Records
---
Amino acid sequence: MRIQMGRQRKEILQLQRAGVGTASAEALLSRMEAKVEGLCAQRDALRSAEPHHNKGRVLGGRTW
């Protein structure tokens, strides 16, 4: 998603250089960025809340 937003940012810059109005595109892009940041924060919170099922175990180790 971040790659797509980067591409859109480049397209907006090209439009600005051509003299085309980009206010609505910039507003849309900023809303998209805010949404992605919110989703990433939500993902990180969910990851930190879930228990680590492998904590303290060695990869491939025996279970006695």
---
Amino acid sequence: MSGRTHAGACPERTCVGCRERAAKTDLLRTVAIEDACVPDPRGTLPGRGAYVHPALVCLDQAVRRRAFTRALRAPGALDTKALRQYVEQTTVAAQATVADQATP
């Protein structure tokens, strides 16, 4: 035996907001399209991607540190309105799901 495990390797990425490593599936991929930073939840859009936790805390840290501009190698500042809207919608949906499960 070679000593290798048969468990599949889980790719990890670093959140540009909090700088913590996490499984790729736990993070939201973002890409730069023209002068905007847009969410890519399926991970299929072309171009360079940056990963962030789908939480407003990490998003705010990344915007404050200008991390998206650096990670995506954009020539200027990126508009993050679409990204913020997506994160807000997903957190509201997640909270609603948790609330529905908590009620008997």
---
Amino acid sequence: MTDSAPRSQPRTPWRAVFGGSIGNLVEWYDWFVYASFATYFAGAFFPKGNDTAQLLNTAGIFAVGFFMRPVGGWLLGRFADRRGRKAALTLTVTLMSASALLIAIAPTYDQVGYFGAFVLLVARLLQGLSVGGEYAASATYLTEASRPGGRGFVSSFQYVSMTAGQLIGLGLQILLQHTMSDDALHSYGWRIPFVVGAVGAAVVFWLRRNLLETEVYTEEEDHQDQERGTIAELLRHRKEAALVIALTMGGTVAYYTYTTYLTKYLSNTAGMSKSDASLVSFCALFLFMLLQPLAGSLSDRIGRRPLLITFGIGSMLCTVPIMTALSHADSFAGALLLSLAALVIVTGYTSINAVVKAELFPTHVRALGVALPYALANALFGGTAEYVALWFKKGGMESGFYWYVSACAAVSLVVYLTMRETRDAALSRGRADDPAAPGKRRTTAV
């Protein structure tokens, strides 16, 4: 990298890490704040009745947002491959700001009946569209902006930012719980975090306008043919696309189980107060966030597969005992230790899953290759995890969900054991550097 390339990636990876992550933080703050505040606004959009039924309705809308993610993955992944990572990152955060504002001003069931739930649904669809493109744009930007031998470390900050967004949401929830009455939170207090999210996204929009495009993408800008970012081009890498879906399956179910669903589980099943459940989640997620760069750096030394295999084995064998113990947790310390144990296992997946996927594809189809298969897997497994959990609970078979999570991890474990190592895969440079086997080692400078 030289001074003669002013439009290339930043001289230090930290500028790229900040630029790629700060918007990701706001995106996932808005995404997760829906889940963490659902216990307060569930009654605002649906008729009064069974609390679990209300949560089931809001979880259903949460899941619908995931089914919009493949559309966002396709449209915004294609956009990122054809127009650049910077342009895609700016567009996604704009959509997220609009969706957060919609939720903040949505009318309640008592005011307009089910129209309020319809507004909530539209906002979730916009969020799904945005996040479907954000994940891939952020993953490709962070990966392409990294230096050789450090991609695992740099890309791990994607989940640092995702977790930080959730922590801010949970932190705000804890603050509101201690400064507002329960009635006030159920009445109007739940709108506050969505207003904060809309404002934060507007700020990030301004910050992302000053991002520089990655060197890897800039070097391929001359290849402006009709195949860039197309489904036809992605199908030439169908094996890698299928691999993304399979390796994501177990990880996304486990991640959403121990993050977005954990607070509800501790409150609705273990019987903890909402404030204590939120504090347990906050503390566990904070430590989980700190683990991501350590695990990402470790993958740069020993490879990606060992971490993925560790996650697969741990999640398959430990989910049932951990979830069972959590259902009977009667102290803050006990719930925290169990939650942290689960998240340590999940770190084997979260810290490196973005870089593994990005390393599978060449530049001209990398964003779409990461976005669409990942979004499909999340729609089928991650987005439905909370809904499936509540469905089992409502049917009086809550332990069935524990086995479901273990089974998903077992399927992904088979993939981890048989997939190739991607740590040494060089990022492609033009069509001449577009091999059929992305894992083949080549020597190019990043």
